[in-house]
Batch of 4 targets.
Target 1
Amino acid sequence: MLEIVIGAVFLAAFLITLAVHKTITRGQAEVEQRVTRVVGSRIPSIREQELKVPLYIRAVKPVIKKYTGLLTRSMPAEKEADLGAKIERAGISDKIAPRELFVLKYAAAAGFTFLFWLLGGAMAKSITQTALIACAGLALGWYFPDLYLNSKGSERKREIEKGLPDVLDLLTVSVEAGLGFDSALIKVTEKSKGVLSDEFRTMLQEIKMGKSRVDALRDLSKRADVDDLSTFTGSIILADQLGISIGNVLRLQSEQMRQKHRQRSEEMAMKTPIKIIFPLVFFIFPAIFIVLLGPALIQMSDTIF
């Protein structure tokens, strides 16, 4: 119980300090914005440039790199490749490497174990219960980075599927207007924003660095791991190899993507009634029964007893 009180006091003190800091710096930020409008932007100092870098890059990543070699000596190559694929699908390959993620899993497992051990010591009645709670924290900490990567990858996949039809429409119009495929991709990256635009921008950079278009498209499909995008890249590669008009292929792919998107929306709409059954049965119906039948049951109990 004492550990929980100490933790609550620490959390309250941290939130109060953060609120005071936000209040103080808010006025300074408004003054700096007014000065910037009148005088113009100034060149930030070296310290300001360093502080703009995320805290993870400045503080956490150097510590992880320090222990990477020590903790990843026995890391299998298959495990490293699997973690690398998950990182690419999550879109954070520029922030963390597979070996660094492996070290982060160790740190998360140790941190969650210690936290759950403290909670178990405050709540459990025996050392066995405390050890079981600590083991649950160990498992949660070890698999938490994987859960985060899977969630990030699924969110990124949904965003790509949602934005692909619009991007294909813009790409089709650009190609039919007379632009080449690469030039049309440049226009798409300039006019649109999002995950898919960033992936196309990365592909164009790879082509500028000397990679062939076919290899760049295959790497794009492998990196995104989206079925619709894989179908699109495969069609472009096939059209390029067979000499088929890319404009016709793009228009056909755009229509198919629109149809798939419509079918996916209809499927989600048809699943909605089934998903509503569970909250209706377990939450809404009991409350309705209590409101409707409660007074009658009370009257019957008064009459009988």
Note: The mean pLDDT is 79.
Target 2
Amino acid sequence: MVSSVTEAEDIVQESFLRYHRATGPERSAGQRVDSPKAYLCTVATRLSIDHLRSARVNRETYVGPWLPEPLLADRGPGLAEQAATRDSVSLAFLVLLEALSPVERAVFLLHDVFEFGYGEIASIVQRTEANCRQLASRACRHLAERRPRFEASKQRRSQLTERFFAACDRGDLDALVELLAADVVMYGDGGGRGEAVKQPIHGPVRVARFLLGLTRQAQRRGLSLQPAEVNGQPGAIVSDPDGQLIGVLCLDIADGQVQTVRSMVNPDKLAHLR
């Protein structure tokens, strides 16, 4: 919902605090919680909606492209076990969800990802069941038109990722261009605090040249790159000579080529990975 590990943790904590107050000795007279799951999901969803509404205002002044916080597979057990779940936490899909209104996003996730019924969802988001069906239908149409595609074969993803980083390491422009889709795009999220491109880079030659420039700079600074699964997709983490994580790179791969490259160096979005 919120595309931020820190904010998600705060919302979960606040939800349990409210549950504790609603079920503890200091609860209001006549207040009762029949279903802990329903209560917690309702509170967490409403807090998430409130957060998204305020976050949209803050992002209007964000420096450069805004990307969700990355999540590494080994830090999020179970997230990448199923293909459907893996794709639903991909950076590409989380970016796509940003185009939905907060309530549309909540209805879509509760129904399509967490398999809640429309009756339950209506109670959570305080809308009618008919309205929730309309919101879900509208969200599904929007997402279906733009939903990202990913390489189905894990072996092909791994092979192409290995070739991609090998070409960068060798400084092989031709080999790298061959791996990039004709409409490849690179995004960088520095938030004004890390060194990142402030505008997306389009096209295989421009993206390849920029990546090779980054690689040469990283090699001069003694930075190391370690392959990693980022939000269920292939990528890498970048560390300084002291082993401190300073960046995360994520690749969207489909049809045997890299479709999108996302680089995150905003330290605020990497704190939870350190």
Note: The two ends are 23 Å apart (CA to CA).
Target 3
Amino acid sequence: MLEGACLTDINMKHLFLRIWRWAVWAAIGLLLLSLDNSVRHLNPAQLAASPYLYNIVEWEFGNFLSKWTHRLADVLPGGPDREMRLAQIQEYFQLGEEARGLSRDLADAAAAEEVQRRDDLQARLSDVRSQRESLRADVEETIEGGISSVLVDEDLSTLREFIFPPVDIRLGNPPKLLITSPRDRIERTHDVLLRSDVTVRQREDVESRLLAESDLAALVEDIGGLATYPASIPTNQTMQWTLQAAAHEWLHHYLFFRPLGQNMFKNDDMISLNETVASIAGDELGDRAFVLLGGELPAKTGAASQDASGEINGQSAEDEEAEQGFSFNREMRETRLRVDELLADGEVEQAERYMEERRQLFVENGYAIRKINQAYFAFYGTYADTAASVSPIGDQLHRFRSHMPDVGTFLRTVSGVSSYQGFLDMLEMLENDQP
């Protein structure tokens, strides 16, 4: 912890043993699940992507021990103090910004065949990446400590300042996700994790094979994190985004032990409810941790939410600047609604032509979207507070949150629901109790 959360040596030993025991059982469960999957008949998505499948059990075993070896060493005398941690995390994300700039310059130099400049930029980029890697383990601990402090403040600890499950992340390269949907409707049918090094050409080969052989719309997409343990978080984003993503993935760990998470895969509404709770609360908790760790939140000119029809209420700063021009949210919502109309009328090919035309419009306006198809909306539509969704769950959860005094109360309350209807009943009770 960064402040007010020091444990005695005895408590630390008990904590470590508890976590170790829990993680061993989790790893055994994952291994059994993996062995079970290996003997099942592969679905079309797994067959099409078979050369690129991601081994989640291997990742778990490869990362858990190194994480906790570092964590145990970190609590011994001589570890980084608060001031050093704050300096490290600022340096880490500043180096990340420099690396992104160098990568762009390197691509330009290579395209212009500026050999000496290209080599100089490559050398500097390698040095920056090496510096970041030397800081990574300590930065992970700092992020975990910052989020944990916020969780304690929100009374989400189970015993004094003990958070269960403990916040645990790994900054790196999460796997890609292959999503499929029938062409005649938007429905998330298969999800398959692929290796993080899958190239664009390989993504498109998998997507094309599923279209040709199984008549499925498919999309291989980057993801913002994966709720493995430790959670896998991209290392190439800003500090604020990273803290929001880390909080989001921890919330999936937290919900796993509660009725909401345990019933997540009961139906599509429950998946959307879980993901949207994690998005709403994850952003709030992540922003709190961001400020605690020295970040400064950008000024907000309007609060964005959705009404029951899915329309955006309020504006982000970006959308306000584009009020007289291009608005991503407005245009994406229009796209989704029109696609739904065309598919409902059986106009599958027309819907697909329309989605490609709209994709080109987004690209022309600075949004580098590689593909928009039924699988795109099946994936992003799961997050009910986004413009790609037509679900009322986003608005319902924002209303639910507005009746809670703080995010901790919101999570403790909503995590107790085991069905979408149960959530609706609780929301109705909350709103009927208002004067």
Note: Residues 1-18, 31-39, 301-317 have pLDDT under 50 and may be disordered.
Target 4
Amino acid sequence: MKKIKFGPLYLGALFLVTSLSSCFIDEEETTTLFMSDENYALVSQHLNLPNELPNYSNSDEDNRDYQFDAKALVGRVLFYDKHLSIDNSTACESCHHQELGFADDKDFSEGINGQVTERNSIAFSATGASNSESNPYFGENDFFGASMFWDHRASNVPDQIRETIENTIEMGMPLDELDDKLNDVDYIKVLMGIAYGEGDVNYTISSDDIVDALLKFMQSLNPSNSKFDQFLNGPSINGGNSSTVFTNMESMGHNLYMANCSTCHGFTGGMPIFSTMNNGLGFYYDDKGDGSYKFKVPALRNVSVTGPYMHDGRFETLEIVIEHYSSGIYPTLGVPENIMPDFNLPVGGFNFTDTEKEALLQFLHTMTDESFLQDERFSSPF
């Protein structure tokens, strides 16, 4: 029999726990409810959500952080809610689609009033490499790979959220007006009251709550069930993780990645080593990135579905990206001083053979977590 347990956020449920306790036969399956019937009926008029609190903290049942889970659920709703834009036309999801690793499949995305963004939408597939506040993605600025936006102008996710909401192209919504707007949206009012107001559905929402809820949702985005993850986490036999076995081509690609790519993108493709780099795109262009023709080093989790690639979406496929690193690495030409690629990237390229290019491609596909791309916890509730 399913055991029904009310989360600590639903304060009015304590008497029900006592009255229902005699009905519990076993504890094999636990469901955590967090809304009263009345509140659930109201929310269900607008949202397709079960009255069961999803596990966003990715913890076992005994160590669940229900407060985090409730806030992340609100963040999920806000991520897909067009009320966050000034004209109710655009949501975060408009530029960041789950099935695309929270990227977009266009060179430049569509914002409010028919405008298009100035740069390609960066994938969010790995912002939740850890849901710890100590993760640089969510803390203070650091030299290493935690900066947000292609030009490194935001030091962490909360700053990125604030700037995106207020950006005059993307959402155009002043934060000091957004809280008043959302306080008039009944289903958001209920969910925010449960998550942030200790169950008081008349709780007054603040812009800090809105940013924090979106932050919690993004902290939960941690693809960790790809073939590469299974390879890394399997039991060690003779010094190798062998519960999941790479093909010969994937193994070759892994070795090539570790030797040539991991210096910038990290050993696991989740947390880049450095924030911004010049990767030898080769010719003059108006966009100077961080001011010196350097751009954010992106995470590579789910990279097979996040194209087009680079800050301007110039490369449509991974094959073209690999060819760039094989034969297209050149200084930034046409500026007063030709700017050399960083970290001694070889001018001209790595000169990969056709077999090595295919091996790299096959290895990069092992970073795709299909379950993450379809996980209902991260899908639209509308």
Note: The first helix runs from residue 14 to 20.
